[in-house]
């Protein structure tokens, strides 16, 4: 694809990384010496057995975490105090995906964090090995198959789809064309009673100045098709509740995406005496979790109508507010729940007229911190503190409803730990089955990468920007 105008790109994107992959270049030979380009200063990176194929790395380096289905060998590796996801792929693809993930990270989009790209790998006989893309394991996250391996609510599929719709809208607003949308290319974090979705695989993606309707609709249609197939696969393995209609869930993604895109981008028309509706529109966007940076307002030639278009800056309205008040960095719906509890604490202590930052400090010391300190040690890697707090509050409400009176927080925590928290553990046999299933899709055929990087060509994903007269394309 052709570079149209670099000046239109966000400066953060242009300066994201020193790696400049050329997706149109033919595959190149591996460097003769090991080369690690890293966004991390972890010195233990250099002590790893890069001279061995990733599938043969010793067990004592590996973290036993559920893996999603991938065409490549993927392993979770302990590197000092961190856990990194390692993916073995060809050099051109590894460099391109690392570069793209760095750019998406600079735009503060929900993706896994790129750590390094490792090239120039050779075994002890001097034979070249594939490159490795290194990303940071997204703590507390799970691939969709691991979620369905647990006894979850029947509406879990719908909640995952809602999270994926939000992710797609955020990426599309930033000009990211995915090219391979599926549940397999996403990691999910619990977010109060919902989920948050994070892009984990950007191999087929591309970053543009802006996306056309044709690009967006292709992504949506592909997502619908892939999701229906993935849910049918779950159903065949008896992992999907029988009442879930796979096609209906796939259609839900399309509906949710279009509804959210419309709420964020449509131009509203008001009469001059209806300006209060502008505040209503902004409040609606805030409730959806999005901040408004600017409002573009124009009058019609006759002066009888005011046209208003919001410029949405990003999601995270509630989470940024909670971070400012408490220092807690949590997901959006978790932040809403914690802010509600903070408001309730403020009212119950008759401190409505007091500075919110001071009240928040006391709430952290008297309510939040004592609660999350009760998380048993063996579960601290299984559940986020904010999610634990949210679920304890929900559990406390049910206990109070059953008892007919308020239940002390300590009692609610103990009951929750005994009756609910054990569901977070994945049985070892189930974990082995998930990872064996993930490995079953691994291929070792470099020919499959010949067209990767030419995203948008009809040969590799079906969408051809040359057929789209509105396409404003930029390729890196």
Automatic annotation (TrEMBL):
Record region (Disordered): 445-476
Recorded superkingdom: Bacteria
Domain DUF4032 residue range list: 259-421
Amino acid composition bias (Acidic residues), ranges on this chain: 458-470
Coiled-coil regions listed in the entry: none
Cited InterPro entries: DUF4032
Descriptive protein name: DUF4032 domain-containing protein
């Amino acid at each position: 694809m052709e570079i149209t105008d670099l000046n239109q790109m966000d400066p953060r994107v242009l300066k994201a990384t020193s790696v400049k992959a050329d997706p149109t270049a033919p595959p190149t030979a591996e460097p003769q010496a090991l080369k690690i380009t890293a966004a991390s200063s972890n010195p233990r990176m250099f002590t790893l057995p890069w001279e061995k194929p990733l599938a043969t790395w010793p067990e004592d380096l590996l973290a036993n975490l559920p893996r999603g289905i991938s065409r490549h060998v993927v392993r979770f590796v302990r590197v000092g105090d961190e856990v990194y996801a390692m993916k073995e792929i060809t050099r051109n693809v590894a460099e391109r995906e690392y570069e793209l993930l760095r750019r998406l990270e600079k735009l503060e989009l929900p993706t896994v964090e790129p750590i390094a790209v490792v090239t120039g790998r050779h075994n002890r006989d001097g034979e070249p090995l594939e490159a490795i893309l290194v990303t940071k394991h997204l703590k507390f996250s799970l691939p969709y198959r691991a979620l369905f391996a647990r006894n979850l609510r029947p509406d879990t599929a719908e909640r995952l789809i809602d999270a994926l719709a939000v992710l797609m809208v955020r990426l599309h607003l930033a000009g990211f064309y995915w090219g391979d949308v599926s549940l397999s290319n996403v990691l999910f974090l619990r977010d109060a009673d919902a989920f948050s979705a994070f892009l984990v695989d950007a191999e087929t993606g591309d970053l543009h100045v802006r996306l056309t309707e044709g690009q967006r609709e292709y992504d949506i249609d592909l997502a619908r098709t892939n999701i229906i197939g993935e849910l049918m696969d779950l159903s065949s393995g008896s992992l999907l509740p029988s009442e879930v209609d796979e096609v209906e869930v796939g259609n839900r993604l399309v509906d949710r995406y279009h509804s959210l895109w419309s709420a964020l981008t449509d131009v509203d028309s008001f009469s001059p005496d209806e300006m209060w509706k502008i505040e209503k529109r902004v409040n609606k966007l805030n409730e959806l979790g999005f901040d408004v940076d600017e409002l573009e307002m124009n009058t019609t030639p006759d002066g009888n109508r005011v046209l208003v278009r919001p410029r949405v800056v990003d999601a995270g309205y509630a989470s940024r507010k909670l971070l400012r008040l408490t220092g807690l960095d949590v997901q959006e719906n978790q932040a809403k729940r914690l802010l509600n509890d903070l408001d309730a604490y403020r009212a119950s202590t008759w401190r409505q007229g007091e500075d919110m930052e001071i009240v928040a400090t006391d709430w952290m010391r008297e309510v939040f911190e004592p609660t999350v300190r009760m998380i048993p040690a063996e579960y601290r890697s299984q559940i986020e503190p904010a999610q634990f707090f949210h679920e304890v509050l929900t559990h406390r409400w049910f206990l109070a409803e059953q008892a007919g009176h308020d239940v002390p927080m300590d009692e609610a925590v103990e009951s929750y730990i005994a009756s609910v928290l054990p569901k977070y553990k994945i049985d070892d046999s189930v974990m082995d089955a998930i990872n064996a299933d993930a490995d079953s899709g691994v291929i070792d055929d470099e020919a499959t990468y010949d067209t990767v990087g030419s995203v948008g060509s009809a040969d590799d994903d079906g969408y051809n920007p040359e057929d789209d007269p509105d396409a404003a394309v930029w390729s890196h």
